Amino acid sequence: MTRAAFSYDFPHRHLISVADLNPVDIRIIFERAAHWLAVNRTPDKSSDVLKGLTVLNLFFEASTRTQGSFEMAGKRLGADVVNFAVAHSSASKGESLSDTARTLAAMRPDIMVVRHSATGAPRFLAERTGLAVVNAGDGMHEHPTQALLDSFTLAQHWGEVGGKRILIVGDILHSRVARSNIGLLNILGAEIRLCAPPTLLPSDVDQWGCDVFHDLDDALQDCDAVMALRQQKERMSGGFVPSAREFFHLFGLTHERLEVCSPDVLVMHPGPMNRGTEIHTKLADDPEKSVILEQVESGVAVRMAVLELIGETIRRDFHSREAGQ
Ligand code: NCD
């Protein structure tokens, strides 16, 4: 299936927040991701849809799967992918984010994939550099490709995510994964439940369009999917929760606890996972229930879809500028 099969022009140069996407954008991303998912399972993975474009991975925070999957996605689409090693960069010598970004932009990459500890850094870089920017996680704010790959994984099982009951449990307060998932699941029409101790919930959570629980056994009733989140210790300044053992006792996912869910409940985790803190190790590895590695596989396909569509926008914008429109 080629892109020519669609008559819809993806209208975005950036992916910074899920709030920028409408249901049609999401459908196109999922259709392209399904295509790349199938391609990625063949020995002929390489394509040239991004040939000539340079993708710059700019990760100011640690990452294993997100950076690796953006790199693989860009390479499989034929882009030149440059991983900018921030730890060895002038940022560690006191250069401002703006100067680092403008310096890199002068090398004329086309797409910047940015992870940063500060909320708003990707939008700031998009404005400063004029480059296409994909947000790979900004502080506690958003992680849009994670939300897309999570809903895509669920859609692969269910067809539709709308109408399903999905629980997010754990450190909601500090989680950009939770914020982006809530935004996207709301657009897709899912019923969202949140479960956490009051110290790990934001004060305005009642305005998020979710049902909030403090008791996990109540929260799990009849859920179709459950997503466990890691405690974001790097974003905590004080003692938000008791010991890991006590957290597991109150909020950890186990087979026994899941008995009140839908019989086909799917278990998710964005990674990195702390086994025995937010999820029992046997549940994490249960091939019947856990889709954690499917999420990783979907991640490459969804990021290929996003880079492909943004690449089309870049070429379209360039040609219309050239034509003086
Ligand atoms: C998440 C992140 O970095 O926000 N990980 C990821 O991208 N897969 C979640 C986390 O770090 O806990």
Largest sheet: 5 strands, parallel
CATH architectural type of the largest domain = 3-Layer(aba) Sandwich
Q: Strand sequence of the main sheet, in spatial order? A: 7-6-5-8-9
N-to-C SSE string, H for helix and E for strand: HEHEHEHEHEHEEHEHEHH
Instruction: Tell me the structural class.
Output: alpha/beta
Brief sketch in words of this structure:
38% of the residues lie in helices and 14% in strands.
Report what the structure shows.
This protein has 325 residues and is of the alpha/beta class. The protein has two domains: 18-143 and 296-324, Aspartate/ornithine carbamoyltransferase (Rossmann fold); 145-292, Aspartate/ornithine carbamoyltransferase (Rossmann fold). It is 38% helix and 14% strand. The chain has ten helices and nine strands. The protein has a five-stranded parallel sheet. Strands 2-1-3-4 form a four-stranded parallel sheet, with helices on both faces. β8, α8 and β9 form a beta-alpha-beta unit. α3 (97-105) packs across α4 (121-129), α5 (144-158) crosses α6 and α5 crosses α10 (292-322). The longest helix is centred in the last third of the chain and has 31 residues, at 292-322. The chain is globular, with a radius of gyration of 20 Å. The two termini are 31 Å apart. N-carbamoyl-L-aspartate is lined by residues 65-66, 137, 143, 146, 176-177, 230, 232, 270-272.
